[in-house]
Amino acid sequence: MVQNLRPIKSLFQSRSNWHWTISWGSALGSGLLMAQADPAVGIWGLAWVALAPLWWLVSRDLGLGQSMLLAMAWGLGYYGPTLFWITGLHPLTWLGVPWLASLLIAGSCWGFVTLWGTAQVILWAGLLYILSRFPHPLSPGGRLLLGVALWCGLEVLWSWGPLDWNSLALTQSPGNPWLLHLGQLSGPTGISAVLVGVNGLLAETWRERPHRREFMAMAGVLIVVAHGLGLGLYVYSSSVPDQERLTVGVIQGNIPTRIKLEALGLQQSWQAYTQGYRELAAAGVEAVLTPEGAIPVIWAGATAATNPLTLAVKAAGVDLWLGTFTSSSGGLARSLLNILGDGRVSSYYDKQKLVPLGEYTPFESLLGRWRLSLVALNGAAGTPNQHLETPWGRAAVAICYESAFPEVLRTQVAQGARFILSSANLDPFGRALMAQHQAQDAMRAVENDRWALRATNTGYSGVIDPHGQIRWRSAPHTYTIHHGEIGLRQTRTPYDRWGDWLTPILLGSAGLNSIGGRWGRSQGA
């Protein structure tokens, strides 16, 4: 093992070798290829082959250091383009940040989140290289199981942290609805497991040339079986009728974040959401959903009781799901309120997953209170096991960033939520983020077998059915109101009941296989 840990000097020397250059370029190119499967581009079929070159390169005896560097190239190729939308933060001159400093901040944020995602791939490659070789080499089947288990385990580990966005499963949403239905079994890691497994089998066709046809056949069988199982779940879900239908409205205010807390922006917010609410109420909807922070005030006291929107609700008698702020012991909560037709707040949900540096300062005692926001108060995270009660039963809520964390919605659906409300402010970011956020909600809708209603500030707002199909989508960067129908359900998927049971089984199986295989070899020796 020590011999494989080549000195850093030899790594730099090897870069002059054309073999290393080709390997590094292949890893980077396959990462860029995987980026084209991202929902913003939508060529989801590429995800079935774009990890195979990296897997093959890592399986070669290039040394641990070079394998991790190749993984870094793949990660930069994948995460760099798919997270480039974060540079839409620039310019931050409306926060008082000079133009050049704003450019550096936006670039640094992009670089950090890219490296954060890339670190997952580097760790996967390093662990796969070590554990598949020492103290004895694994068989091709053992190596395949280990690689799939490690990838899924690391995706779960990353989802427990404060930053997570691009699971490999996201590449299939919303374009491959059959495969998305595997999410009903064990969540997004089940989809990732199939993708990584197929790529691993393709990599083995290059590594194990005498058995190329067998591995190609197994890859084909895995693809067919996965889609066949997904189709079966799709058909079964289609056979279960909605218990009720609810006529709903959505308001997309299109109020720029840079002016929302100013007098002009606040005036525009009151006007846009009050007028939109009145029009939707007149159209006969039963409830109206608004984006995250639609009314950027602390909803309390006289402000909550006498504002134009509350008066409109009392006059029309139609329930309102309002995105606003509420006071909390830890600071300011991003909340979605259920306001009844008489103007009373009957229930609310506080955002649990806050955006680091956007809504709170991590390690505040060391870094000080510094955020990319005009909101002076630090964000307060909501507690787990919250319930948004409505006249039609419980609703599962995801506020903006939470759409990327499947456990947030799974927990609420498991506790009786009948539909999903997604409320977000995606300004100032562009269409790439809009497409990714929509794809996240499509996955959550399928996993939980629920309709999802989306309201965003700038787009895409929409209606998503339990199959992940986009029934309606707003135009971006426009003021929009829409009314339509969603279904209410009480079905329970295996994922709702048991969560991600697949990843522990994969990790346990890989561990037992590794121990058993090596023990057998040592006995034979």
Description of the structure:
There is one protein chain. The chain has 525 residues and is of the alpha/beta class. The protein folds into 2 domains: 262 residues, no CATH class; 246 residues, 4-Layer Sandwich (Nitrilase/N-carbamoyl-D-aminoacid amidohydrolase), CATH 3.60.110.10. A 6-stranded mixed beta sheet has the order 5-4-3-2-1-12, with helices on one face. It has a 6-stranded mixed beta sheet with strand order 6-7-8-9-10-11, with helices on one face. The model has no long low-confidence stretch (mean pLDDT 91).
The average pLDDT is 91
* End-to-end separation: 20 Å
Largest sheet: 6 strands, mixed
Number of domains: 2
Helix vs. strand class:
alpha/beta
Task: Flag low-confidence runs.
Answer: none
Could you say which overall geometry the principal axes of the C-alpha atoms support? globular
Rg measurement, Å: 25 Å
